């Protein structure tokens, strides 16, 4: 009934033959015919640039497809789509800009690169009137960028928040389930391959920060500078924090969030952060465990929607990359390679300064009963209204937590400075925001 | 930085000015400028066809925009996109086919029409090489069709199941929370406007059945005849069923599902149904309450993903309709109105016959202790392996439930015939499938 072969063949070159590259190769081998039957476009993966032919690979790739010189891909006039999966912010940037300047569309999963140089790279795609696709860079298999850009195009976004780093979510889930501390779980995760040897990118919040930078820029139609987004990782989270959060009616997660706390349309007050955050136990985000990712989107028309899926790994990421390749191939074959701008960047938006970010806060100290008294004295002296409080006792240590009224980060910073000077502290006091989804 | 006005103006005509039509009008009034800044396309809602000018409307529409003759829209050569929101399967069909035959693209939320005449309507869109968009017809604000068609294009779908009727989910949630029976909650829901005066479309499963027909056809690349999908509504669900399900470790929901129960790729065994279904309490779908919709998609590449949001109502549906209008407008302005076929319909797929659908089943009878004994005797005689069982006693009645091994619907049907003859039954025995998400 349908004219399936209306579009013909599109040649694709890929830079990187590691985990995700292998997944893309495999998905195209297994389901390439299916894609053609669905879309009318035949995708030919013509060449894959790798560091060396004989590296160990999760998926074996025929040597005839490989090259060790990426120029072979960029210089091939038949290749109209370049897929960058090598990672990093050096050579990857050079290759992407070179591909765009030659009128090739680019698909990438490289959030670190886009967060650092997005403005320049998006502009290059515009200038050359080609496409730039990066669904796989945020929340792996979850089609969150597409949904924000296309399905929800008629919405002003009032709040977008999500669990976008699977490693951190895995660590927090394991700490909770096995009653283990951060360092123990991190080591286990590294042994199992769920965390990198250098875990800082994940556990210090940088990876989530890259993704929130991209989500914020999309949602606000304006390039958001990464350094205007607050960032705090999960190194200071203790078992006591997980337990106290639960007692208070919350789950503690590393949450990225972009929120408008203004009272009405005319008084936008947008704040963005990545931080361990208390989420009400009855909210769906609180139930997201293990390596899974999830994003909640609140639009002024659609209301609240929620997306959940695998945030990383060979196959989920490959699914997103191939989805983008197909989109690029259809647009290329229809001669509309620049069908949608890669990002909406027209508006002028200022985030509230990090010091002015407001929230209710969870504060916790661990120490002696004397420390707890001194802690309460500091709260009283500073007119902190304690809305809830819970404590835990174990082996002579008291873990004492409160939830405050809405305060600014500037105020919380001063408070923490004072609290840090208390005598008898077992470890670093913490202050985490409470997300009430109001 | 971007050339936002590259696409110009696109004129749209709308048929229907009721709840959803009003929502679309309002969203375009409020956020039309935002859409233009994001996409470069200016959408002009030129005319709205209504039954009468002076009908009560949730959103007031200027009289200058209205017409009582839909031909004014179809005949207007400036209007390139027709949005059908009148509902029904009669005149709506005529208008859509007429619009398509004149080379206009169509946006609709009419699942009943598409389930009944989809094959003919999709073919007409193909023949005229225009677009047909229907995201709003399944799960309201949730971008599930777009995600299946585009983001997950490289996936074979192993299972798609969802809570796609908000009225049924609201009724079951209220029964559970207020310990009320079906009839009481239905009357309340009708008073509050959450259920139609004629509730059959919702509570007998027809609306969910329309949506599952569309999801199944998309997922399987083949037009699935509605009568090959099993359908059962929620009228027989009792409070005892909700409570017993919980005791057994499940939540009882009206679930639409499309599943491949074959052992491998070469032995596809696809079955589809709409039925009250037991869902494990720890699965995210079990937590979806009230009027919300949710869909879980299992793809062979992406793994399991999950979508949640408002399934109906003025604004969520309007968000989906406007998303489609924008898509249609971009494609129209780029002169690629038929960018994607409305549905993939190349494959030949046979669902397993309804009698051959297999599942583990929950069986429940309510009666005297004598009835329960006779029930067990029937199970024994028929070699039914009772994997779990729970009972409830209230006011001299015993509610007795079991979960069986995997059985066919043919076998269940025979069993129910026999069980129905038992003496002392308080109400109709039920058999609902158990979805284990294996």
Question: What tags apply to this protein structure?
Answer:
homodimer, 438 residues, alpha/beta, Rossmann fold, Dihydrodipicolinate Reductase, domain 2, Alpha-Beta Plaits, 3 domains, six-stranded parallel β-sheet, six-stranded mixed β-sheet, 13 helices, elongated, disordered N terminus
What does this structure look like?
2 copies of one chain form a homodimer. By secondary structure, chain A is of the alpha/beta class. The first copy, chain A, folds into 3 domains: 8-140 and 314-333, NAD(P)-binding Rossmann-like Domain (Rossmann fold); 145-310, Dihydrodipicolinate Reductase, domain 2; 354-434, 2-Layer Sandwich (Alpha-Beta Plaits). Chain A is 36% helix and 26% strand. The first copy, chain A, is built from 13 helices and 16 strands. Chain A has helices at residues 19-39, 71-74, 91-101, 111-127, 144-151, 166-178, 182-192, 200-203, 206-220, 239-248, 314-333, 369-381, 409-420; strands at residues 8-15, 41-49, 66-67, 79-84, 105-108, 132-133, 157-163, 230-231, 250-260, 270-280, 292-299, 303-310, 358-367, 386-394, 397-408, 430-434. In chain A, the strands form 3 sheets. The first copy, chain A, has a 6-stranded parallel sheet with strand order 3-2-1-4-5-6, sandwiched between helices. In chain A, strands 8-10-9-7-11-12 form a 6-stranded mixed sheet. The radius of gyration of chain A is 24 Å and the shape is elongated. The model of chain A is unreliable at 1-5 (pLDDT under 50). The interface between A and B is large, with 65 and 65 residues. β12 of chain A pairs antiparallel with β12 (303-310) of chain B.
């Amino acid at each position: 009934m349908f004219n399936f072969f209306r579009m013909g063949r599109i040649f694709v070159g890929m830079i990187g033959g590691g985990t995700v590259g292998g997944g893309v190769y495999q998905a195209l081998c297994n389901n390439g015919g299916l894609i053609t039957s669905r879309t009318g476009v035949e995708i030919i993966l013509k060449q894959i640039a790798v560091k060396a032919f004989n590296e160990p690979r999760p998926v074996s790739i025929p040597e005839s497809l490989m090259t060790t010189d990426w120029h072979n891909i960029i210089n091939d006039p038949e290749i109209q789509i370049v897929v960058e999966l090598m990672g990093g912010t050096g050579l990857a940037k050079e290759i992407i800009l070179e591909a765009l300047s030659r009128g090739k569309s680019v698909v990438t999963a490289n959030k670190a690169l886009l967060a650092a140089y997005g403005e320049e790279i998006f502009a290059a795609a515009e200038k050359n009137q080609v496409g730039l696709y990066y669904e796989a860079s945020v929340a792996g298999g979850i089609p969150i960028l597409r949904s924000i850009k296309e399905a929800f195009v008629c919405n002003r976004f009032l709040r977008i928040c999500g669990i976008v780093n699977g490693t951190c979510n895995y660590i927090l889930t394991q700490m909770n389930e096995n009653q283990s501390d951060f360092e123990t779980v991190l080591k286990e995760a590294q042994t199992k391959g769920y965390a990198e040897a250098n875990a800082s990118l994940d556990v210090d919040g940088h990876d989530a920060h890259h993704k929130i930078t991209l989500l914020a820029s999309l949602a606000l139609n304006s390039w958001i500078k990464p350094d205007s987004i607050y960032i705090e990782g999960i190194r200071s989270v203790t078992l006591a924090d997980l337990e106290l959060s639960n007692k208070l009616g919350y789950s503690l997660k590393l949450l990225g969030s972009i929120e408008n706390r203004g009272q009405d349309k005319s008084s936008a007050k947008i704040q963005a952060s990545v931080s361990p955050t208390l989420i009400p136990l009855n909210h769906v985000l609180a139930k997201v465990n293990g390596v899974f990712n999830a994003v909640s989107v609140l639009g002024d028309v659609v209301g609240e929607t929620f997306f959940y899926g695998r945030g990383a790994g060979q196959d989920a990421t490959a699914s997103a990359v191939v989805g983008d390749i197909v989109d690029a191939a259809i647009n290329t074959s229809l001669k509309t390679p620049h069908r949608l701008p890669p990002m909406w960047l027209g508006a002028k938006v200022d985030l509230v300064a990090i010091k002015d970010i407001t929230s209710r806060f969870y504060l916790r100290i661990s120490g002696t009963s004397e420390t707890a008294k001194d802690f309460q004295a500091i709260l009283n002296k500073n007119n902190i209204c304690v809305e809830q409080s819970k404590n835990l006792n174990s082996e002579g240590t008291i873990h004492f937590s409160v939830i405050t009224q809405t305060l600014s980060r500037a105020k919380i910073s001063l408070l923490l400075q004072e609290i840090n000077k208390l005598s008898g502290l077992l470890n670093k006091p913490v202050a985490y925001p409470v997300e009430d989804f109001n």
